[in-house]
Amino acid sequence: MVYLIRVGLHSHVIVSSSVQNESFMAQHQIVPPDSWTKQRRSQRLSLSVPVVIYRVPRAGRHFFEGAHTLAISAHGALIGLGTEVAADQTLILKHAVTGEEQACRVIFVQRKSSGRTEVGIEFRQPAPKFWGIAFPPGDWKHPA
Predict the structure, then answer these.
(1) CB-side exposure of 70: number of CA atoms within 13 Å?
(2) Is 104:121 a contact under the CB 8 Å cutoff?
(3) Which of 43, 82, 110, 115 has its CA 20 to 30 A from that of 67?
(4) Separation of alpha carbons 132 and 140, rounded Å
(5) Could you tell me how many helices (H) and strands (E) the chain has, helices first?
(6) CA torsion sign, 120 to 122 to 126 to 131?
(7) Which residues pair with 93 in a beta bridge?
(8) What residues does each domain of the chain span?
(9) pLDDT digits (tens, 9 = 90+) for 50-73
(10) What is the pLDDT of residues 61-119, one digit of tens each?
(11) Distance between CA 130 and CA 72 in Å, rounded?
């Protein structure tokens, strides 16, 4: 069996046969792999999709930036941006190929040493069809 061991902020994957010492197991939080997938509402895909992200003037200082996704899911995306945004801001994400737009909320901001910022956005409503994935993961439930 494969397990994820969390030690503080770090996680390590081990195979159960390599864990012989019961005191080692008692000192660490052992999490079976089934719980890893249950932490997310929908599976992420590492995919670069061209998008335009902007903020309407009534929601703060107006900006308009072309970008690419780093990862996508039925519930949102991770995007690299040059524009500074803050958690809980409302933005509009436009798919650069289809022109479809989704209102979203900033849920994660991490500034990188490169000067770019990784921004996690969450759609107001799940939108698994937004990305145009022909064969999406099974947990990307399509609303009727």
Answers:
(1) 10
(2) yes
(3) 43
(4) 12
(5) 2, 9
(6) negative
(7) 53, 102
(8) 2-38, 50-123
(9) 999 998 777 667 889 999 999 999
(10) 788 999 999 999 999 999 999 888 889 999 999 999 999 999 999 999 998 888 789 99
(11) 10
Identity of the amino acid at 18: S
CA distance 105 to 86: 10
Quickly count: other Cβ atoms within 10 Å of residue 32's Cβ: 11
One-letter identity of residue 67: A
| CA torsion, ordered 64, 68, 71, 72, to nearest 10 deg | 60
- Residue type for position 41: R
- Return the CATH number of the domain spanning residue range 50-123: 2.40.10.220
Say which residue the tokens 């937004």 belong to: 130
Q: How big is the CA angle at 101 (ends 96 and 105), to the nearest 5 degrees?
A: 110
DSSP 45-58: B----EEEEEE-GG
